[in-house]
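Sanity check

After download, print the first record. It should look like this:
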Amino acid sequence: MAIVQGQVRLTLPLLVLAAVAAAPAARAGGTACWFDNGVVVVPAEVLGIAGDYVLDTATPTTQLADTQAGGAGFAATALTGRVRLAGLTLDDRPVGVATLDLRTGALPTPIAGVIGADLLKDFVLDVSFAPCRVALRRRRGRRFPASAVLPLRWIAGVPTAEVAVTDGTRAWRGAFALATGGDTPVRLSDAVAQAPVAGASKELYPYGVLRPKLRALGFADDLYEDLPAGLIKALDPALAGQIGAPLLARYRLRFDFPHGRLLIAPATPPDRRPSARRRARSAGSSHRADR
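Expected structure tokens:
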């Protein structure tokens, strides 16, 4: 891998929470979101604190920012209470308190906390990135035009899928956490990666400025080359790394947590892509399956 300096991330236009509040009420189980600086942000209310929250399937626990918790009068760091998200009201949910300044400092709006995998794991979660929309349901809801289905395996409290990677000298397959709140396309566990520049490893981790280029990655039958990459701490020996939202945003996703699978569809429906009709005439439509 070749080290390159971190790129300046351009901020996408961000709708303020008030604009969403003024819009017509979302359908039960769905809400608009923002895909900004490489992470998904949703409006939510946690323990009475309404605001913008990072939605991260690779953070094991739901968290309030310590500044928000302190401002609301919470002194404890382990709390329990009501969460409102995507039209659903969930009672008696555990919520931690954490310092999130490094994680959220690059975002152009104050972040109240993180919606983690513990809150999502009993539901079916649909995520679209452009336009950004999140739906959370107890059942699968309407049919999803999946082009690929991957088994989900829970490791260290987060959902993972098998991914194939190569750094140009060796290749391997492993379980990668799926991070809708991860701002880098791919991060490797530091237990399996080889940092190429001595003394630079600190800047390869989250909030660092370096983005190595990973030679190639295979995900959902697609091959990606020279992806900006980084490292994460080895949280579990079975966890090989993390796939972040900039890569996941190339798809529409259905996390069917109750059935242990990830359904994947193209970000742009095939019938809206210029070459789709030509491909359909030559190959037929048997490669697509409604699930």
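If your output differs, re-run the checksum step. Summary of this record's structure: The longest helix spans residues 276-283.
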